[in-house]
Amino acid sequence: MTPRIVFPYWGASDGWAGIAAAAAAQNAEIVTLTLDLGQDADLEEIRDRALAAGAVRAHVLDVREEFARDYVLPALHADALQADPAALALARQLAAKKLEEVAAIEGAAPAADRVVIHQTLLGRRGASYTLTTAPADAPPMPAHVEIAWAGGVPTAINGVPMPLTELIDILAIIAGHHGIGRVDPGSPIPDPGVIEAPAGVVLIAAYRALVAATLPQPITGTVRIHLLKGDHRVLAVNVESRIPDPGSRLPVAPS
User: Fold this and answer.
1) By C-alpha distance, which of 58, 51, 42 is closest to 7?
2) Tell me: the pLDDT tens digits for 205-222?
């Protein structure tokens, strides 16, 4: 029986060339795994591309909720997200785990050493900025974003309850539009290149403010943040409020 190897695959042609060479060297069949971590990509197209290129099977898994719940939130609570606001290292951990799981199902060997993550729902690393507006070009009017928390979990933005992954997506759009999230090159992130994490940067600031105001009580309340031309600051922390009713929305300042 021909052995199989499960490779992570994100759609790049040069990535496929490396996969094919590694499989040929071991006379093995190729199985690919593509994870939806919140990156902007057509995952079904990537799957079809893998099969057309010769993969015997191509798995596509949506792991956004698992990633946010089991990796991002614990790191945020442990104040460990500051060193990796785009959560790229956390995503590599999850990808390695999923490779092991798929390999067990396929009776294959996982190529975990080939896991490289460039983007998650919190942010990305790349050659140029794509998620954030340059602060000088950001709108002159500020946005005020109020994040509601229940037991340390963000549950609503500006009075609108929403699932965690959707909340992170919306927060990334608002913050990035106002130039928030360009990580200082002097930060302790080990990987080179441009780092931007609009959602991660704002969540870290909001959670730290909430913790400072609520300890040792349960971490529940709202944090209101001012966003303007690359700068963000906490305006208010309300530890008495409940999750806002969806009928009473706090407007975001016009762009």
Assistant:
1) 58
2) 999 999 999 877 778 999
In a domain, 144, yes or no: yes
Distance (Å, whole) CA 130 – CA 177: 11
Q: Are residues 146 and 87 in the same domain?
A: no
Name the strands in the sheet holding 29-36, side by side, starting at the edge strand that comes first in the sequence.
Answer: 57-62, 29-36, 4-8, 109-110
**What pLDDT does 188 receive?**
54
231 and 128, same domain (yes or no): yes
**How many whole angstroms separate alpha carbon 191 and alpha carbon 156?**
32
Element (H, E) at 93: helix 88-106
8-12, 13-17, 53-57, 188-192: least confidently modelled range? 188-192
Residue type, 80: A
Tell me, yes or no, whether 151 lies in a domain. Answer: yes
Mean pLDDT of the chain: 89
User: Is the predicted pLDDT of residue 243 greater than 70, yes or no?
Assistant: no
